[in-house]
Amino acid sequence: MLETLAWVGLLVAGSAVQNASRAGGPVLPQTQVAHQEKQSNIATTGAFRITGRVVNSMTNAPVAGAYVVINAASASNFSRTVRAGTDGSFAFTQILAGRYVLMARRKGYVEQMFLQHEQFTTAILVGPSLNSENLVFPLAPEGVISGEVTDEAGEPVHSAKMLLFREDAGDGRHMKHFKEEQNTEEEGRYRFGSLPSGDYYLAVSAEPWYAQYARSNSSWIGTSAAAQEPEIQNSGLDLVYPITYYPNATEVSGAASIRVDAGGSARADVRLVPVPALRLRLEVDKIDLRASREILVSQTILGTYPDEERVSSGLTMSTAAFQDGEDGSASQLSGPVIMEVDGLRPGLSSVEIITGEPGKALGSDEVKKSVRVDPAGGQTIDVGGIAPSGVVSGIVKLEGNASVPPGVLVFLREESSGRAFRQDVDSAGNFRFFADELEPGVYEVSSAAPGGLELRSVSASGTKVTGRKIEISNGSDLRLILTLARGVNAGVKGIVERGGKPAPGMMVVLVPEDLRDLAEYRRDQSDSDGSFSMNLVSPGKYTVVALKDWDLEWGKPEVIQGYLAAGTSVEVGSGQEREIKVTAR
Amino acid sequence: MRHRLLHLLRSVVWVCVLAATSCVVPMPAEALQVVMSPPAAVDKSSSTGQYTLSGTVVDALTGAPVRRALVRLVGPQSQLVLTDEGGKFRFENLSRGQNGIDAQKPGYTDSSAKSVTVITIGTDTSPLVLKLEPESTITVKVTGEDGDGVEGLPVRVLISQVQEGRRYLRMNGGGQTDEKGEFRAGNLTPGKYYVSVGPSLRPTGHAGDGAHESDVGYPRVFYPNAAELEGAVQVDVNSGRRARVEFVLSTVPLYRISGAVVGGTLDQFCRPRLTDGSGVDMAIGVRVNPMTGMFRSGGIPGGFYTLVANCIISGENSLAGRMPLHVDSDLGNVNLSVAPTASIPVIFRTNQSGADANKNHFLATILLTRKPSTVLQHGNAWSQWEGEGAERRVVVRRVEPGLYSVDIRPNSGWYVESAMYGSIDLLTEDLTVPEGGATEAIEIALKNDGASVSGTVRGRGATPASGMVLLVSGRAPRMVKEAQIVNGAFTLGDLAPGSYRALAIDRTDDLEYRNPEVLRDYLTKAQDVTVSSKQESRVDLELVQREK
Question: What is the C-alpha separation between A215 and A238, in angstroms, rounded?
Fold first, then answer.
């Protein structure tokens, strides 16, 4: 089964109110629908048991003292933790019939669910005539990547941001995904532990510690005449480290993978070599005293991670207005005003200029301009010449004009890259994306909503709509209307069999008729009784296949094609749920 | 560019609304620095002089030279250089005159924040020796009941500090123990630190006999073995000291709570959090169902807590609530009611009108401190001026109901003549903020005909090199004015007419002089001074030596 809502959510210590993010980061669409919680006071003791042994996945030796957790897969809050004995054995007794997700952890091992693949696990069914005993829970010893970051003088670089990427086929084809980040400690060391085996890539984003003193630390603003000579002392220390990939490559083509086997450790030291920092000038045609401006410069690392380099505050903006105005009451500036951003790294960067009302949260009133530039030439960018970024905004409506409940999310997912973006919907049903974050392309619109509400239809002005797909091009505004209703999507569930017996742990793939339509694929892992279940399936024709190989690039039509003949065909209509039998290959 | 930058701030006032103590909102001076420093950084004449300045940077503890330290000339002349392999540096082409200089390097305490050494550049400038204080660290080691290091346990390092006469408890580092059960908090300035570990982010096991079942895990413990801040022992960290503290923990039952946030219309995410008796956030995760307002949490050691919620509804309004919670078993149906927070209009009136009133635009900063002062929670709000001329208006939003002390800091050139909330005199009384919606306005009258007091300070036999003069108003004892003693003299301006107690103290770095209880003992040694409007008064003071 797909497990995304386990107790892991509890770990997010939440002291702050969660802001609606302005730049929705990549997320998994459609899977994290928050379920309605039920307060249940039903009895939690029953007559059944889950027993087994935790073993080292490499050596089969028992893992003594492992913590084993079971979570009921139903809405109830039932969870229990036990510690495995010296022989790795564990037993949960007096439990109710039901479906349980198992999880185990032990120092030195990767914390994982039972037979976990990506975010899928084989859940254990407990009840009369179901076998939930004598399980063997293989726990993979952790992989470790550690090392040291040093600077041009061989001294440790502290607070360097270490970005770890892992290559997997989770999106249907092998891709590098951002996994986690951490900062080097004072002695320049870092350590990524608890890594599953795989191929990793490491990128370092850091700044020479002394460089911040060598520049103004603020965008420099003046009229064009005054901007000819920046009044910054050239100390030779205004330096930056380019994004550096292991092993010491400053171009992504030089990045090498770091192979980590289960229980293995790899050492990856990086030495950073500074280059002169670059500046970029922005020519602002007129100053609006009431506007605050924010400039963000970012570079995208390995195609996914946006690394923000430089932010200039909004406050400084208004200073330019007083350059020429004698009494400070007016903002009459003849000629253009130049803003300068310094401390930039070489390489293709995205520059965003956001103008909003001071004192208001950047949001509804802001205007954003965006341009991609390699600042190497010290060029001046005419901001006035850039069209404001298009805005993909819209409204969510309910069939029958009922009011939109809180908690509705809207997702946009780019078809070819699989990158997804998310926005919260406000109480009036409105949402808003900035189009420049969305590379031009065809996007699948989806929505997650409480109370069984599902996306029925999408309509749009400003672009072409095909089903739930919209086309986003550069610079244009789009307005979407999303209509939600109950019972729109279908469900497909069933049993995977192999040799006439239920086959647990299989990758079940629901393949749409159009093999290239990645958004319509659904996957699951079969549970201990061979059962699987896939929700939020768009009405249509599909083939369901069950595979053993979790590394398969199922998203490539030429790959999945070969498996379809052995699959089971199914057609579902709106609101239907079909039950099928699939034979595993 | 001159001082026209001052105009920049005319349309902005920072208002700091505190549920507690620490205020991160920039004070007027700081706000100005941010704006002014870049353009003013360099004097172009600096490259035309004929003098040189050289020296060595050394480790203050060992005396060894420090390579690749950054040496900065700051002030009229501004240059940067890194020391060579022998710790030496050299600046050339300098002009004659006074200038600031400092040195820094990672691993050493950044002294530039505290003070800058002033030197005189000229023909006979001798080589300098700049000392760097090695930074201090606290290494925490946590051992569990199985004798192994406990991995992934939260660690927090807190420092109790006095700033501007108020005591603050603030986070000075934190994280989780590593695979060896260790955590290192670096870059600490010398001082006294509280260290806490736990609670476990998730259960380490399960205990029970069927009738009473619970998860178990490690509790939150302050060093050496206290459940609350009260009872904790501070870890004394001297310059360059590497302190090490060890915890040996046993597991305790962990409980779950569930319930709902009730009241108002919850169309926004609202996540309650648990704080302990001192107001320190327990950093225990709480899951909320945004559709229903239902929350649940687990992994809570038994104890007395406060459940707090601040729910922002829209840009301007919010709901807030808090309730005490005694956890000694799993708790269901915990209902935390939230009520609308208040929006408090603040009206500033000055005795001037027209053009003159615009001279000093940044009229005042207002600070609301929630009582009883707990720790480490703050929110701030800022607002734009509304109104023109002699009457300006701001609205402080999202103020949680409760009791607040109000501190008003006018810009240079102004003093507070009166501050009223209805019939309550905020210069002497606390402000009770009621639940919900708009309240009465705080009316603050500012005047610019303040008096000044200056004078000399005599120490025991000699002119004191440092210290502070405090002026406590007879009418508003909570409005303490302070000035540094420089070369045995002091000046304090912008004083409201009236009588004051004047006091010179040798050390105030750890003195809560804004706490009347603390100051009372010293005031017996103070001297009376009374001033009238625009009067320039003189008073000579005897330095009070505090016990070390």
Answer: 6
Check whether residue A146 and residue A272 sit in a common domain.
yes
Give chain B positions within 8 Å (CB) of A404: none
- Give the least confident one: A270-274, B25-29, B176-180, B237-241: B25-29
Q: Give the angle subtended at the CA of A394 by the CAs of A390 and A395, to the nearest 5°.
A: 170
**CA distances, B461 to each of A33, A98, B464, B505, B542 (Å):** 76, 85, 9, 15, 11
Tell whether B44 is within 8 A of chain A (Cβ).
yes
Bond from prior residue into B224 cis (ω within 30 degrees of 0): yes
Chain B, 45-74: which have a CB under 8 Å from a chain A CB? 46, 67-68, 70, 72
Position A19 pLDDT exceeds 80: no
Question: Does any domain span residue A213?
Answer: no
What is the C-alpha to C-alpha distance for residues A29 and A418, in angstroms, rounded to an integer? 10
Q: Which amino acid appears at position B187 of this protein? A: N
pLDDT for residue B481 is more than 60 = yes
Q: What's the confidence (pLDDT) of residue A76?
A: 66
**A68 pLDDT exceeds 50?**
yes
Instruction: Give the B window 258-297 contacts with A, CB below 8 Å.
Output: 258, 266-271, 273, 281, 283-292, 294, 296-297
CATH architecture classification, B253-340: Sandwich (2.60)
DSSP H or E stretch at residue B185: strand B182-188
d(CA B421, CA B437): 16
- Which structural domain range is residue A397 located in? 391-486
Beta bridge partners of A460: A480
Q: Name the residue in chain A with its Cα closest to that of B211.
A: A45
> Considering CB atoms only, which of A155, A231, A319 is closest to B5?
A319
- A450: chain B residues, CB-CB within 8 Å: 291
Same domain, A134 and A149: no
Is B382–A359 a contact, with Cβ atoms under 8 angstroms apart? yes
Q: Is A41 on the interface with B (CB under 8 A)?
A: yes
For the stretch B49-77, pLDDT in tens is 789 899 999 998 899 999 999 998 887 88
Domain boundaries, chain B: 2-36+341-447, 44-132, 136-250, 253-340, 451-544
CATH of B451-544, one of 2.60.40.1120, 3.20.20.140, 3.40.50.300, 3.40.50.720: 2.60.40.1120
| Mean local confidence (pLDDT), A221-238 | 54
Fill in the amino acid letter for B94.
L
Residue B259 Cα, gap to closest chain A Cα (Å): 9
Are A233 and B201 inside 8 Å of each other by CB?
Answer: no
Residue B498's pLDDT band, with cuts at 50, 70 and 90, is very high
* Residue partners of B543: CB distance under 8 A and separation at least 6: B457, B458, B459, B460, B464, B467, B485, B504, B505, B506
Tell me whether residues A82 and B285 touch, CB distance under 8 A: no
pTM across the whole model: 0.74
Please check whether residue A17 lies inside any domain of the structure: no
Average pLDDT, rounded, for chain B: 79
CATH number for the domain formed by residue range(s) B136-250: 2.60.40.1120
CATH number, span B44-132: 2.60.40.1120
Among A4, A5, A15, A319, which would you mutate to test the B interface (most chain B Cβ atoms within 10 Å of its Cβ)? A15
Decide if A286 touches B, using CB distance below 8 A. Answer: no
The verdict on ipTM greater than 0.95 is no
| Candidates A13, A81, A235; nearest CB to B79 | A235
Rounded distance between C-alpha atoms, residue A47 and residue A32, angstroms: 32
* pLDDT score for A126: 94
Query: Structurally, how many domains does chain A consist of?
Result: 5
Tell me: pLDDT of A457 over 80.
yes
Evaluate the CA torsion angle B102, B105, B109, B113 in order and state its sign.
Answer: positive
Of A320, A136, A91, residue with least CA distance to B35: A320
